[in-house]
């Protein structure tokens, strides 16, 4: 004799609403899931008129349902095992990945970049993609100063010092104020961190003219050693007096109007001779 089977016993979704039975919430146990029940707590007050649908004593407007599964959680429940409330916790789920890194979803597909195999959804897996976030900047040229997984040009706090970049005088936390940083090629990477300052395709350590200004590096003068050649520096000797107000731009004790520059190359003769002697000495040492 054939044995009859109850469809319900084999069905993970008895009411066919797309929500597995073990995830359905039925607060008053009347057999009607809360999302289909007009009176979840069976207190006689319809939910659309009830300030506390589930009858737990916590007003609905103070309940939190972070994952949208119908289960409300209180402040105590909002704490992970570290005992820190989520609104004060930098890592709500305790997985070791800061929340501000988990929130990055470049292609908006609902999968955080750190879990997404194709961050920009261009059909090229990230491990084969030279530009994971599809912003037009190759990955090996992107700068992420604080290592938080967010490129500086997309990060509101590049150095992760807690000061938003638009209020921070030193976005990358390198000790050099932003207004003193030089980015010759405008690629977002300061020259002192850039392997190709003028973006001419020739690495700086092989380039005779790093900043592409037509003046060979060995002929450029940087009096104060701040990385900005004198002809581009507003304060050559870094004495706090702008050159256009300074009677002695290079701080050598000789007033500018008494300096002699016979060849007009912008380098005073007494420094020109010194550089020539040094160059000659270097050549002799190399022979």
Automatic annotation (TrEMBL):
Superkingdom as given in the UniProt entry: Eukaryota
Organism, per UniProt?
Pomacea canaliculata (Golden apple snail)
> Which segment of the chain is annotated as a signal peptide?
none
Give the span(s) annotated as Disordered: 1-269
Places the protein is found: Secreted
PANTHER family to which the protein is assigned, alphabetical: RE20510P, THROMBOSPONDIN
Q: Which InterPro entries match?
A: TSP3_bac
Q: Which Pfam families match?
A: TSP3_bac
| The entry's keywords | Calcium, Secreted, Signal
The keyword Cytoplasm is annotated on this UniProt entry: no
- Feature: compositional bias, Acidic residues: 10-68, 84-266
Q: What is the designated name of this protein? A: Uncharacterized protein
């Amino acid at each position: 004799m054939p044995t009859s089977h109850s469809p319900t016993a084999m069905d993970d979704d008895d009411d066919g609403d797309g929500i597995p039975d073990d995830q359905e919430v039925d607060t008053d146990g009347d057999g009607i899931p809360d999302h289909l029940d007009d009176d979840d707590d069976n207190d006689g007050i319809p939910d659309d008129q009830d300030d506390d649908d589930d009858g737990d004593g916590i007003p609905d407007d103070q309940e939190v349902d972070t994952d949208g599964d119908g289960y409300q959680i209180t402040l105590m429940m909002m704490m992970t095992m570290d005992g820190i409330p989520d609104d004060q916790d930098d890592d709500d789920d305790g997985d070791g990945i800061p929340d501000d890194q988990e929130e990055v979803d470049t292609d908006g597909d609902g999968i955080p970049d750190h879990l997404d195999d194709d961050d920009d959804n261009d059909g090229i897996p990230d491990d084969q993609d030279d530009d994971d976030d599809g912003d037009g900047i190759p990955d090996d040229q992107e700068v992420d100063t604080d290592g938080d997984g967010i490129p500086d040009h997309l990060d509101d706090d590049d150095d992760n010092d807690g000061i938003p970049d638009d209020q921070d005088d030193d976005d990358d936390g390198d000790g050099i104020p932003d207004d003193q940083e030089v980015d010759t090629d405008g690629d977002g990477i300061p020259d002192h961190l850039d392997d190709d300052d003028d973006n001419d395709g020739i690495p700086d350590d092989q380039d005779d003219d790093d900043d592409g200004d037509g003046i060979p590096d060995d002929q450029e003068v940087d009096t104060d050693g701040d990385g900005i050649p004198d002809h581009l520096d507003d304060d050559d000797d870094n004495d706090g007096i702008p050159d256009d107000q300074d009677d002695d731009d290079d701080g050598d004790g000789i007033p500018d109007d008494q300096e002699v520059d016979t060849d007009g190359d912008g380098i005073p003769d007494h420094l020109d001779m010194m550089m020539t002697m040094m160059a000659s000495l270097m050549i002799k040492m190399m022979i």
